[in-house]
Amino acid sequence: QVQLVESGGGLVQAGGSLRLSCAASGRPSSTVVMGWFRQAPGKDRGFVGAIIWSGGRTFYEDRVKGRFTISRDNAKGTGYLQMNSLRSEDTDVYYCASVSRHTIVDRASSYDYWGQGTQVTVSS
Known about the structure:
With 124 residues, the protein is mainly β.
């Protein structure tokens, strides 16, 4: 079992930055992939990016390439989503997720464990 606790969301002005954290407990060493997803009210949960825990290879959806950076601290078992140049359309609840096997990283159904979600609101 893995438990994921998210933090770092909040309200920022357009053009600002936030860093979301996703702390894994239980069996953090079991993480193979950590993904990040976003969801607005009444909308589907969509892929933001992911990181392969061993080696740190990252994947991003096109809307965030060049603005968001995913990283991780192996020793702490914590993943990070650095969000720069934020836009109003980035406003969403952001979720981290993990899975203990290699999988298709951009599908929510691939992940076994989920964080509680953290609100990111970007104002004009």
